[in-house]
Amino acid sequence: MADRRSGKRFIVWAALAGLISGAVFLAVAELFALLVARAASPVLAVGGFVIDIVPQPFKEFAIATFGEYDKVALLAGLGLAVVIASAIAGILQLVRAPLGVIALGIAGVLSTAAIVTRAGVTPLAFLPPVLGTVAGAVILVLLTRRLRRWREAALAPAAAKKPAVDPSTPPITKPSPTDLTPADTKVGVSRRGFFGLAAIAGISAVVVGVASRAVSMTVSSVESIRKALKLPTPNSTVTIPDGAELDVPGISPLFTPNEDFYRVDTALTVPTIDPDTWRLVIDGMVDERVEMSFQDLLDMGLDEYVITLTCVSNEVGGELVGNAKWLGVPIRDVLAKAGVKSGADMVLSRSVDGYTASTPLASLTDDNLDAILAVAMNGEPLPLEHGFPVRMVVPGLYGYVSATKWLTELKVTTFADDEAYWTPRGYSAEAPIKFSSRVDTPKLGEAVEAGRIPIAGVAWAQSVGIDRVEVSIDNGEWTPVTLSKAINDDTWVQWFMEWDATPGTHYVAVRAINKNGDTQIEERAPIAPNGSSGWQRSLVRVN
Asked: H/E element holding 351?
């Protein structure tokens, strides 16, 4: 029984050996990624690959469940998977070598494939995962060899380990080193050899891995560059009319603060781009290929715009919508520099991380639509997570076909010849926004006191505008509410009404009517393939 328990403990130490080997693999890969290919981090590459291949329903679930923390949840899941797989590799290597090394090699092959198939891959991008795999395999072999020697010595026959004891000899309470048997000495040496190497490898992996990732994330100091960036004074600004913002507790502010603005994208980590090295290429069906620098864009002159953005993943009553002031230049002026050829009907925009969006050409060239390349948001250069240094902002279209962040290319093409990231994943190639309305207060699930209380929220119908909003209490008649003064047809409006709330449970429903006279769609529809629809009906409990 004792031998069996002793044998089981070596499985635990084998799992530890696997964890340390996995840590060495990642640390060496991160180090060489820092030196030769910044985008060649195995964890980030595999994470990006997972984002690409996960079926659309799972993406919707992640966004609905974790919101802007969906990437954090993915990284945590990947970390747990790495821990489990590494432990299994260590056990396999001890029990049946070289299965552990083979498992580690498979992980290296998969991570290498994920890296070299990413957009913008460099010639040496394969090197970090390959070297990481080799280093991890070497440590795994060395650790399990020491562990195997320790196990063999510890599980050797008792007779070989202990001399016969003469009953007439008094017991020795504390043996001196000279009293130890060769077997005891072998056990001690083997044990110290295993833990010594494990400690050195483990500590080195943590130090090298953490330092390499930290340096990789901060070496360009893009955030400090962004904060120091001085943008030119805009040629024009937007006048905010009196009455544009209602003073109602609990209602969404007229302008969504940058730190609260929703973020949904495919980037596992936020790209860091120095505006001095940023370039925008305009090519495809154009008269002349054009390449612009950040300064070239600024030299075109900036104007201020106020535009509401909506994510296609926004559920009825959801929060994946926001309103902001933007500084930028019209995309139609940028395209005019290249000269668009006849027959084109789409612009495929590309992010630095490889993401693409398909925007109808007509939406980008319409003189009456403020489709822009934005460089600032709510009075400051674009935050890193919102596309610094340049992103697209197009009113009237869901973000997945119009709001490309970290923009690097505009390819003039056709819907017949090209498709964007989300199209083969179950979403429409073109996605005009379905106008909608939302109740901000009373909040769902929060009880209110009986008496006169406000019901308030926002409504939006980008590029058309909101004409009126109506509210129904307990399936009663639809009552028009008070609207804020609209800044323009591309922004949301606030609305409110006073309600004499009586104790009990009540249903509050809201709907909007746009300036074309169309009523918001009542029937519920999922977010795929082109956005959710339906009237929001909230259950309100009154004390």
From this structure: strand 346-351
Structure tokens at 364: 């980008």
- Let me know: does 148 contact 14? Beta carbons within 8 Å: no
The pLDDT of residue 465:
96
- Reported pTM: 0.71
- Helix 2-36 vs helix 70-95: angle between axes, to the nearest 10 degrees? 130
List the structure tokens of 300.
């075109």
**What are the tens digits of pLDDT across the range 120-157?**
667 888 888 899 899 999 999 999 999 888 888 877 75
Three-state SS at 506: strand
Q: DSSP letters of 185-252?
A: HHHHHHHHHHHHHHHHHHHHHHHHHHHHHHHHHHTT-HHHHHHH--PPPPSB-----TTSS---TTSP
323 and 256 in contact (C-beta within 8 Å)? Answer: yes
What are 509's strand-pairing partners?
A: 472, 537
Sign of the four-CA dihedral 43, 45, 48, 53: negative
Contacts of 147 (CB under 8 A, 6+ apart): 10, 13, 14, 17, 94, 194
Amino acid at 71: K
**C-alpha distances out from residue 148 to 3, 88, 102, 447, Å:** 15, 16, 18, 64
CA 351 to chain centre: 14
pLDDT at 38 (0 to 100): 64
Query: Residue 402's pLDDT is what?
Result: 95
pLDDT of residue 158: 47
Q: Which residues of 119-144 are buried (b: 16+ CB within 10 A; e: fewer)?
A: eebeeebbbbbbbbbebbbebbbbbb
Q: Is the peptide bond before 157 cis (omega within 30 degrees of 0)?
A: no
β-strand pairing of 482-483 with 493-501: antiparallel
User: Do 282 and 412 contact (CB within 8 A), yes or no?
Assistant: yes
Q: 501 near 543, Cβ under 8 Å?
A: no
pLDDT beneath 70: ranges in the chain: 1-7, 38-40, 49-54, 56, 58-60, 63-64, 67-71, 119-121, 157-186, 213-220
Q: Tokens at residue 537, please?
A: 């009906």
DSSP class per residue in 248-307: -TTSPPSS--GGGS----S-SS-----TTT-EEEEEESBSS-EEEEHHHHHHT--EEEEE
Do the Cβ atoms of 459 and 512 come closer than 8 Å? yes
**Among 5, 21, 219, residue whose Cα is nearest residue 101:** 21
| Max Cα–Cα distance, the chain, nearest Å | 109
For 49, residues 6+ apart whose C-beta sits below 8 A from its C-beta are: 114, 117, 118
d(CA 293, CA 347): 19
Number of H helices, E strands in the chain: 12, 18
